[in-house]
Write a structure and sequence with these properties.
The complex is a heterodimer of chains A (about 325) and B (about 180). With about 325 residues, chain A is an alpha+beta fold. In chain A, the strands form three sheets. In chain A, strands 4-5-8-6-7 form a five-stranded antiparallel sheet. In chain A, strands 9-10-11-12 form a four-stranded antiparallel sheet, with helices on both faces. In chain A, helix 2 links the parallel strand 2 and strand 3. In chain A, helix 5 packs antiparallel against helix 9 and helix 11 runs antiparallel to helix 12. Chain B has about 180 residues and is an alpha+beta fold. Chain B folds into two domains: about 80 residues, Ubiquitin-like (UB roll), CATH 3.10.20; about 90 residues, DNA polymerase, domain 1. In chain B, strands 2-1-5-3-4 form a five-stranded mixed sheet, with helices on both faces. Classes of the chains: A alpha+beta (about 325), B alpha+beta (about 180).
Chain lengths: ~325, ~180
């Protein structure tokens, strides 16, 4: 590991000023991803600015009934919070589906959004990787890509974003608040992650040195009946090979409102707008759920070894929406 | 200007304060084992995947291999060496002994620290990925074997002593419920 300086930030302004003054500095939250990547040399910061003890660890109801979640709230506290479980059970479930109890106690909301891909080539500094070393190539396309992207990838990178939490946040139009030396700013989560294109090393639209301070979920009554379902290669403590965050409101057997987002299929949480459009006004049955999944997955461009994900995602969408429709009928 | 790459750090471990001069790269795990001779906490994978290094930081189970020591300054750290009280084993330790919740023992300190926290998390009403319905009106989940397996999934045991580990955690949980009832009565 490269040697580095360490400073514990006293307040948000101070943290942002430290980053602004030092291009080699990085924020340290829970460190569960950053410290791991520093050990392997993927990340080589010259200084860490520790933001974990900043007073950004609250979860508050907003005036309109949404939730404002501080950036240093741990994954554990987010998942256990009664208002999160009441207003958006899919968010609690998504967080609980990720990592282990120990890691969720350490990991923060801001860090979860900014964690790096678990692509094996990205993690191995002896291999080429366009995300880690622009222009060096992407061995995953010809190599090990069983768990890589089927949507929105490019010939330069097919890595997936590993977060479960971000998938649920994406389904409910979360907004990310941040602070820079020039002042505060906001980005819809939908615009946080940049398209892969030929610049997979540029992952987010955050300005340089920005510190995520909070994530706000606008009020969405449909979120009260929501679920997160994750498929992985072992029963627990593994990254997704596919996941769905969904919410459904049915009236007289017809879909009135629906939210759908996919995980582990793209470089970002994938909001399934095409599927949502196909569903609103349709009968809430398996046939129409499958047709909606197909509408979204028509854009899929799988590689030889991850074509299974197209079927997997279709089946997941049908299963989750069927569960939600049955719950609505009770 | 090059920032200093080491600091003097006060670590509060099992109720005792230790002042150390530490390279910032030092993990809490290495500080415990290499600098303070607290070798009960084990190094397994050293990359956050096995749970052998689990300790409690301010009561929360934490992976010492991914925790920079300098960032844990002034927090209350409890290791396996600090679990027994006044010569009495912690009920979780006792249950692991009585029910053979181990074979080689290497993962055991991490398993025990993790299980102690699992009981507290459950008592606080936290749901898990095994919880059927996380909405608060459904009340806290019962600590079934399935719940225990899910909550303990961050601790690997390569001997495969899982069956006995689950039994040990269940017994400690039942004892905790009993003593809670006695206190209430």
């Amino acid at each position: 590991m490269r040697e580095f300086g360490y400073r514990r930030a006293d307040d948000v302004t101070g943290a942002v000023a430290l980053l602004d003054a030092d291009p080699g500095a990085r924020y340290l939250g829970g460190g569960t991803n950053l410290v791991d990547l520093m050990k392997t040399g993927v990340e080589r910061p010259a200084r860490l600015v520790d933001i974990r003890r900043l007073p950004l660890d609250g979860i508050e109801l907003t005036d309109d009934g949404g939730l404002r979640i501080g950036a240093t709230v741990t994954n554990s506290d987010l998942a256990a919070h009664p208002e999160v479980r009441r207003r958006c059970p899919a968010l609690s479930q998504a967080v609980l589906a990720g990592a282990s109890g120990q890691l969720r106690n350490m990991a923060t909301v801001g860090g979860n959004l900014l964690q790096r891909t678990r692509c094996g080539y990205f993690a191995d500094v002896t291999k080429p990787c366009n995300k880690r070393e622009p222009g060096s190539g992407c061995p995953a396309i010809e190599g090990e890509h069983r768990n890589h992207a089927i949507l929105g990838a490019s010939e330069h990178c097919v890595a997936v974003h590993p977060s479960d939490m971000a998938v649920a946040l994406s389904a409910f139009d979360a907004v990310v608040s941040y602070q820079t030396a020039d002042g505060p700013g906001e980005l819809p989560l939908a615009d946080l992650y940049l398209p892969v294109s030929d610049t997979p090393h540029r992952e987010t639209a955050l300005p340089r040195g920005a510190l995520i301070t909070a994530v706000t979920l606008p009020a969405a009554p449909v979120a009260a009946r929501s679920r997160y379902r994750k498929v992985r290669e072992r029963a627990s403590y593994a990254f997704a090979i596919g996941s769905v965050a969904a919410a459904l409101e049915v009236h007289d057997g017809v879909v009135r409102d629906v939210r759908l987002a996919f995980g582990a299929v793209a470089s970002r949480p994938w909001r399934a707008h095409a599927a949502e459009r196909a569903l609103v006004g349709s009968p809430a049955d398996a046939e129409h759920f499958a047709a909606a999944a197909d509408a979204e997955l028509a854009a899929a461009r799988p590689l030889p070894d991850n074509a299974y994900k197209v079927t997997l995602m279709r089946n997941l969408v049908v299963a989750v929406l069927t569960d939600l429709a049955q719950e609505a009928a009770r | 200007m090059h920032p200093s790459t080491s600091s003097t750090v006060t670590l509060n471990i099992n109720g005792e304060k230790h002042q150390l001069s530490l390279d910032h790269r030092t993990t809490l795990l290495d500080a415990l084992r290499e600098r303070l001779d607290l070798t009960g906490t084990k190094k397994g994978c050293d990359q956050g995947q096995c749970g052998a290094c689990t300790v409690l930081v301010d009561g929360r189970r934490t992976l010492a291999c991914l925790q920079l020591a300098v960032a844990a300054e002034d927090q209350e750290i409890t290791t396996i060496e600090g679990m027994a009280r006044g010569g009495e084993l912690h009920p979780v330790q006792q249950a692991f002994l009585e029910l053979d919740g181990l074979q080689c023992g290497y993962c055991t300190p991490g398993q025990i620290c993790s299980a102690v926290a699992v009981l507290e998390e459950h008592a606080a009403g936290w749901p898990s990925a095994a919880t059927e319905d996380v909405r608060p009106e459904h009340g806290p989940p019962e600590l079934t074997d399935e719940e225990i397996r899910e909550r303990m999934s961050g601790n690997l045991c390569r001997c495969g002593a899982y069956v006995s580990i689950v039994r040990a955690v269940a017994r400690a949980a039942a004892q905790q419920d009993e003593s809670a009832k006695e206190e209430a009565a």
